[in-house]
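call fold(seq) -> C-alpha cells
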Amino acid sequence: METRILGTDDNSIKEAGEIIARGGLIAFPTETVYGLGGNAFNGDSVKKIYTAKGRPSDNPLIVHIADISELDALVREISDKASALIHAFMPGPFTIILKKSDKIPEEVTAGMDTVAVRFPENAVAQRLIKSAGVPVAAPSANLSGKPSPTKAKHVITDMTGRIDAIIDGGDSDVGVESTIVDASRDIPVLLRPGGITYEMICDVVPETVIDPHILESLKADEKPLCPGMKYKHYAPDAEVTVIEGDMAAVKAEIDKRLKEHSGRICGVLTMSENCYDSAVILHGGMTNKEYAKNLFACLRKFDELGVEIVYAEFENRDGYGLAIRNRLYKAASQRIIHVNTEE
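ret:
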C-alpha cells in the first residue's frame, strides 16, 4: 500500500476525511500523541486498525468526536458525575468510558458493553473528524508495543505501507496518551493517568479512585478495560530499567550498573543534571510534565542510536508523576529498582 504524507491545509483535511468516510485509515496529530483513525461505525474499518498496528483484538479502542453533542449517539446514559467530568475536561487530553449505544460495533469495544470517548483539543484532529462526518476510532499510530508517536516521523517509520495517509501536524504538546476514567459505574475509576492528573479529577469528583493495575500489568486471563492495561507497551528495542528514588542514590545506582555493562552500548534517560561516563545521555526534562512530553521521543531516539540498555532516572516531582511511572514501568516490563539516599 502507498502511504501518502498530507499537510494540514483544507484540501488535505478534506481528502483525509473522505478516506476515513469510505473505510480507510489516517494517522493524525492530537495534543497527546498521534492517532491512527478509522470510521468508528464501520467494523471492517476498525479491523484494519488492529491489522495495521499488529494489535490484539481484545484491546479496546477510543472513539474520537469533534463536539460534545456527538456523545448522544455513542452512549446510553451519562450520570451527573460523568457530566461534570465531561464539562470540566473536554475538549482536552481526557477520555471517558460510558455504557455504549447499539451504534458502536463490537470491534471498537472488544465485545464490552462500554465505549471510551475522547474529544481532542487539537485543532487538526477536530477538523479531520468534522471532515469525515463520523466519529473516529483511534489508538496511537505506532506498531503495537512500541513507544507512542509524538512526531510525524515516528508514524512514518512505523506505518508507511500499512495505512492510506499520514497528516504531518508537528509535535504533540502533552506527549503521553489521554487520561482515561471509567464513569460507567457509581464510583468513577482512573484507569490510565495522563495530562489530566488524578488531583484535577478529584477536584471535580472527589470519590474517584485509582485502579491498582495502573502500576502493574494485568494477568494473562484478565480482560483489559482500556488501552494500555494488559500488554507490553511503550517499549523500545533496548532493554529499559527504571531507577527510582532520591537523585543522589539514583545516580550512584546507575553509575554502578554502567560499570557492569562495559562493552555494551548503554543509555541514560535523565530528569536531572547528572552526568554519566560511557553512556548515551538524553535529557527528558527537569519536571515530570517536561519528562512526559519528551519520554517517547527519547525512547525512540535510543533505538536510532543503537543503544542496547537504557536506565531511566525517575523522581516524583509533580502531579504528572503517576503518568510517567505508568509509562516507564510498562516500557521497562516492570524492571524497577527503588533506591534511597542513606540517612
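Residues 104 and 131 are 20 Å apart (CA to CA).
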